[in-house]
Amino acid sequence: MGISSSKEDSFNKTGSSEQSPLISVGICTRDRADLLRSALHSISLQEYRNFEVVIADNCPSNDDAKKVAEQFNARYVLEPHLGHSWARNKLIAEASGEILAFMDDDMTVPPNWLSSVASGFKEPEVMSVTGLVLPAQLETPAQVIFEEAYGGYSNGSTPLRFGPGLPWKNGLYGLCHDIGPMMAFRRSIFEKVGPFDVALGVPVGGAEDIDMLHRVARTDCIMLYVPDAIRFHCHRRDLEGLRRQISGYGKAYTALLLKCFLLEPDLRRRILRRAVGYGFNAIAKPLALSLIGRGSRPAKLVIAEGIGALSGPWAYLRSVKKTRALDQSYDPGRLITDIARR
After folding, report:
1. Are 104 and 28 in contact (CB under 8 A)?
2. Which CATH architecture has domain 15-237?
3. What whole-number distance in Å separates Cα of residue 113 and Cα of residue 110?
4. Of all helices (H) and strands (E), which one includes residue 310?
5. Where are the domains of the chain?
6. pLDDT in tens, 1-46
7. 10 Å Cβ neighbour count for 198?
8. For residue 323, what are the CA distances in angstroms to 81, 174, 202, 206?
9. Residues 244-291: pLDDT tens digits?
10. What is the distance between the alpha carbons of residues 322 and 298, in angstroms, rounded to a whole number?
């Protein structure tokens, strides 16, 4: 597909309404103009009209994304530092809306998506809304494996509410709150928890989204999971791409566990239990089942995740050192949420 767009694909300027808060849709992209076009086209069909779209082009090798943004009347900003956290922080700085809904360029949304997101923020105590992520297609073995064996990005069809006095899926706050691919926040929360951690993401491989949800959770605000806020994700089509993805997930998760262990002493026992449970349930048990022909996850993928998990802590420490050399003001100790101890 080229980088052309029909006139009807472009969305209008935002409207104003006392009943409808301005939502900023922030899209991170890098050298994937065709996917970006599909994402923007789906946003152009939204029933909810009071929104803007801001595109953060993350260290691109060409100007294709800028051209697509212009065709769709979207605001374009360039982020020269490679990494999702850098791009998302750029979106936080550039967005104008009371609500900021993050989106990747490999996603599309149905027409009621923003209406569902807005409905989740009706209560002023709600600071985060996440939603259901479904596969855009299941055409290749890699896509089927990711969705069926790894659960994809779905967190089920039941609405969930998290907050003071309300139980999490387990006791470790957002470290198990695995619905990061669909995140929307009330803009004011970033004044409390700060920006995304740029030491996560590249080169660690991710987890900056789970880290942010974890920090927001520790403010004792209300967080909602709204299944009606649906997105469709283009899963990796080839097994090698899936292998790299799963390896990256292992590396990123243990990097995040180390960060929280170092910076949040009140959670250290829980983190250790979580690390042991992860090693057994995500690595050792699936590998054993796969080797005897009873597992749903191919052994090569389980091994890749295990190798990634072993490298995660060292990758995090190297990334912190590299980030400090790049930005002398960087202090991971400031990127935690200080809550009253009960």
Report:
1. yes
2. Alpha-Beta Complex (3.90)
3. 6
4. helix 299-326
5. 15-237, 241-328
6. 334 344 445 554 444 445 799 999 999 999 999 999 999 999 999 9
7. 25
8. 11, 24, 11, 15
9. 999 999 999 999 999 999 998 988 998 898 899 999 999 999 999 999
10. 34
